[in-house]
Amino acid sequence: MIQQQTPLTCQRTQYTYPADAHYLNCATRAPLSQTVAQAGLDAINRQLNPMGLTPDDFFTGAVAVRELFSQLINLPDPSRIAVIPAISYGMAVVARNLPNKPGLQAGQRIVLVGSEFPSDVYAWDRVSAELDLTIHTVTMPDTLPAADAWNEALLAAITPDTSLVVCPMIHWMYGTRFDLEAVGVRCRAVGAWLAVDGTQSVGALPFDWQRIQPDALVCAGYKWLMGPYSMGLACYGPAFDEGIPLEEAWMNRLDSNQFHRLMDYQPQYRPGAYRYNVGEHTHFTQMPMLEAALRQLLDYQPERIQTYCRELMADALPELESLGYQLEPETGRGHHLLGVWVPPHLDAMAVTKTLLARNVSVSARGRAIRVSPHVYNTPADVQALVEALR
Fold it and tell me: What is the pTM for the complete model shown?
């Protein structure tokens, strides 16, 4: 893909939510663009008349999505991508296969970052008890800036007795950035698996599979991938090539597109991560929407999204700090998801309710309000946020 160097301009005309709504909340859910919505409507219309549907039609949509996502994350082999319904499903695949990890021993640790999203935490309770593993959580420092100290503590926690590290690219609540390349190097040095939740980063922040070299990457589709809800994508490295899937979906077997021979039961899976696809993964309505969303992102480009969001928020952030709000320094965060820590005398949930009354949508997460702009946001949206907080 040829990378465009021209800056992104505001894409607000592609999004049809109300003109007076100041939606700075993509980290909760992305609004669908007209292009993505139309892809869904077209898909529904095609289903009004299923005449001419062929067996291959159950597979081709997902093939295109895999190829597009592989471009987005610089993954040379699209067959390593599986279609999943949620982060919990993708992480459950990791948990299901952890007992077969080479060198696994009782007493080893699963390392997590503090205050992580629940699906990245609950996944390990059962398997850690069954295998006699310990869950070790690296908590966030109490004060800002936190990124450097948090990264140092995380790297220090990855020792030879670590079996698995679960880490995002940025923290889902506060936007704190983790050095995944350094984490990946450390994991490989001690023989630990690295599972990355890319839900709050991939699509808006550049992600390079070949540089990070995780064992697993899971992403929900409805946030920064800007697609439909209840669809996601997961990538599994060589450690999972002969692994055990969560379900035995018939479509995941070799020659499953030969409908006239489905009774000739096939013991072999399709290659790569195909065995990890959720059943009925070709979803005739959702898949075209996800494909359109990925094409849109490849046009936007994560690097240009970051630049757009940085310039959009540049003048507002000093004003917020002057009002007593705190932010991680620029070097320790992304530009698309900002944890804006509220002053001690304020309650984050109360602040978000007050903002919503002024038609400004952000989220309350922990001790911060989470501000998450995108290319549909305008300076007027940011000014509305600042004025409401002031």
Answer: 0.97
